[in-house]
Write a structure and sequence with these properties.
By secondary structure, the protein is of the alpha/beta class. It has helices at 2-14, 31-47, 53-56, 123-126, 134-146, 167-180, 193-198, 221-229, 271-280, and strands at residues 21-24, 27-30, 62-66, 71-72, 81-93, 96-101, 106-107, 114-121, 153-160, 187-192, 209-213, 242-246, 260-264. Strands 3, 5, 6, 8, 9, 10, 11, 12 and 13 form a 9-stranded mixed β-sheet that branches. The longest helix is centred in the first third of the chain and has 17 residues, at 31-47.
């Protein structure tokens, strides 16, 4: 009901017509009353949280990013730690999508919850023009969807540092991907922390979470870390379900203990690294 009602209400709220009566659904209402109903409808629509399939699938609270390096994680307790591993890198060059699968070995314990991560690189990295066409979008979606076929994968994550001109394209990629994935499979995305603080373009994306990467933030680092250490939080609901940190860059927050944490490491994970996390996060 929010879909049609919200569209109609937005049109009414944006209208400058002076007619004393307006048509609303099956009857007629005076304009002031119609406006009141519209505000109520829009408010109720905005309060409905999007689905969180990651929580529904009971993934562990702490998830280790395993990037393109040899990783032996068989020592992990799969009840405490999940693993988000780089499965592939897709590079957009012109109208082509170049595919580079993971090359380094990954060992995981039996029963581990795995998230297949796709890294997308475009003009921000390549410094070359890209063609954001339907054909390119289709190639990306197909490649990302196929990572679900890898052994024991429970969820999909996309890592794409989009520039402003690529946002609408990325939105369509995520929408197509969500439509093609099984309904119960979580779809996650990473996000620059600055997107989650002062930019609302993430708010209605068809994902289960947008993971703000609160590390290696450059000029945004001090203001964002100050905000979080003083009890502040990210604005968008999708950004308040999880967050990403680096092992070598501790972060002070007042987040609820239940919030998911992704952790990046500049080197291969060791039992000593995991012991640091257990102490840091009270496991």
């Amino acid at each position: 009901m929010c879909g049609c009602g919200a569209h109609g209400c937005r049109a009414l709220l944006n209208s400058r017509a002076t007619a004393p009566r307006v048509l609303f659904l099956r009857g007629t209402l005076t304009r002031p009353l119609a406006l009141f109903v519209c505000v109520a409808v829009l408010s109720s629509c905005q309060r409905v949280p999007s689905r969180d399939r990651i929580s529904e699938n009971h993934l562990p609270r702490i998830i280790l990013w395993a990037w393109e390096r040899p990783e032996d994680l068989e020592f992990l307790n799969p009840q405490q730690f999940g693993i988000a591993f780089l499965a592939q890198t897709l590079t957009i060059k012109g109208s082509e999508v170049l595919f580079s699968p993971r090359h380094q070995p990954l060992k995981v314990p039996p029963g581990a919850k795995l998230i297949a991560v796709t890294r997308i690189e475009s003009q921000k990295i390549t410094r070359q023009p890209t063609e954001l066409s339907d054909e390119v979008r289709g190639k990306l979606v197909e490649r990302i969807r196929k990572t679900l076929e890898l052994n024991n994968v429970s969820a999909i994550q996309v890592d794409f540092d989009v520039v402003t001109a690529e946002r609408s394209f990325y939105r369509r990629v995520l929408a197509d991907l969500r439509q093609q994935l099984p309904d119960n499979v979580p779809l996650s995305m990473t996000a620059l922390a600055s997107f989650c603080v002062g930019d609302r373009w993430l708010s209605d994306l068809p994902v289960d979470e947008a993971v703000p990467m609160v590390f290696r933030m450059g000029t945004d680092s001090d203001p964002i870390k100050t905000l979080l250490s003083n009890g502040g939080d990210f604005k968008d609901d999708l950004c308040r379900r999880s967050y990403g940190v680096a092992l070598d860059e501790p972060l002070k927050t007042s987040f609820a203990k239940q919030r998911r944490i992704y952790v990046f490491n500049t080197r291969s994970w060791t039992p000593a690294d995991v012991s640091v996390l257990e102490e840091r996060f009270g496991l």
